[in-house]
Amino acid sequence: MIPKVEVILGKVGTGVTEPLHGIIDNNHVIIKTFNNEESNRVLINEFVSHRMAKALSLPIPDGGICLIDKQTKIDESLCFQEERYGLGFYTKRLDKVTNIVSSPLLLSKYIANKDDFIKIILFDNLIYNKDRHKGNVLINIGKKGNNKLYIIDHTHVFNIGALWDKYQLKRMIDSEDYNSDEVMQYNEAVYNLLIEAITIDKDGILKLAENFKTILSKDFLQNLVRDIPDVWNIDEEEKTMLFNYLFYRVKNIENICNVIYNYIRNRSRRW
């Protein structure tokens, strides 16, 4: 059953998708609503990326599809348009968090899940996420030094963010966009911190890629795309092409690994 948003308390930050702070089952959550300013494509992007990240055991808050309806209590300070009622996407709010620190030494010394760093880089490249920055990499301050790094916000994925359609997805497949190092370029500020905090070798990246490939199977991706709500303005042709794009990226994950490794190696030479 789709969880219902009980209360919307207010806005969160100044993001273009106008995320909201709400409550579901007594848990504080961050919500991106139906018919938001960036279109329902961002809900699809979030839903697909989140399911993939969870399957890969990446550090991402719990979340999923949620419902806002006329029984949801809306804070009086908000101007909430009726067209935003419907199915949205939520993630649980993390408590005791800070943005990623600008010190590889501190990350290496105090973050418990350093093994996830290269997984995050590979995942971003797989889904063509060019928007990994210090605002969507969080550190959860845990007990007894069990500090954990989390990733949030996957609005701008699949190469062109919320602008994709079946024609653009086909164009990207035909252009073999897995050869691009744009993700590494755009996300370099954060990736530099992660890369300097760990040791990376090509065999390790390729072994990780094999694990990704096993988990993100054809059946998994077909079921994932099938579960996208139709009300998010996606028809069967677009679902098919989105599956084709995702499956094409997974099939070429070894090439993506080569792009990552070569970029890191060339970066070291520049330094």
What can you tell me about this protein's structure?
A hairpin with a 7-residue loop joins β8 (137-140) and β9 (148-151). This protein has helices at residues 41-55, 104-110, 116-126, 166-174, 182-186, 188-196, 202-215, 218-226, 236-251, 253-270, and strands spanning 7-11, 20-24, 27-32, 63-68, 73-74, 86-92, 97-99, 137-140, 148-151. A six-stranded mixed β-sheet has the order 4-6-3-2-1-5, covered by helices on one side. α2 (104-110) crosses α6, α3 (116-126) packs across α10 and α8 (218-226) runs antiparallel to α9 (236-251). It is built from ten helices and nine strands. The protein folds into two domains: 7-92, Phosphorylase Kinase, domain 1; 97-270, Phosphatidylinositol 3-kinase Catalytic Subunit, Chain A, Domain 5 (Orthogonal Bundle), CATH 1.10.1070. The model has no long low-confidence stretch (mean pLDDT 96). It has 271 residues and is α+β, with helices and mostly antiparallel strands.
Radius of gyration: 19 Å
* Broad shape: globular
Order of helices and strands: EEEHEEEEHHEEHHHHHHH
Widest beta sheet: strand line-up: 4-6-3-2-1-5
Largest sheet: 6 strands, mixed
DSSP, total strands? 9
CATH T-level topology of the largest domain: Phosphatidylinositol 3-kinase Catalytic Subunit, Chain A, Domain 5
Question: Which architecture name of the largest domain does CATH use?
Answer: Orthogonal Bundle
- Low-pLDDT parts are none
Mean pLDDT: 96
End-to-end C-alpha gap: 52 Å
Number of domains: 2
State the helix count.
10
Which structural class best describes the helix and strand composition?
alpha+beta
CATH C-level of the largest domain:
Mainly Alpha
Helix-residue proportion: 40-55%
Percent of sequence in beta strands: 15-25%
